[in-house]
Amino acid sequence: MKTLLAALAIMCASATDADANGAVQREVEGRVESFDAVSGRMVIVREFRGRTWRVEVTAGPASTIFACSGERVDVDRLRAGTPLGVFYEVVGSEGIANLIMTEPER
Description:
This protein is mainly beta. 13% of the residues lie in helices and 52% in strands.
């Protein structure tokens, strides 16, 4: 599954323009803590080894959003508590999302 996601992220990153540096691609898996549909900014929370990590990314109009079933979905699917994985490019202390995969509730 991760190989498929990585391939999709590479295809999406090369097919769209991103306002990022294009050099560093990262992935984060967690839950949406907050999402602003107007600006596309979201905070993703990940619990790992007893620590809480927060990553802020911006989903632009060119960002691709898929459900685990492979169907493309709109940003209205993103709300607090939604489990997801995001491939993003680093911009300062934040990131620009290239590919967002929503996951089924666990």
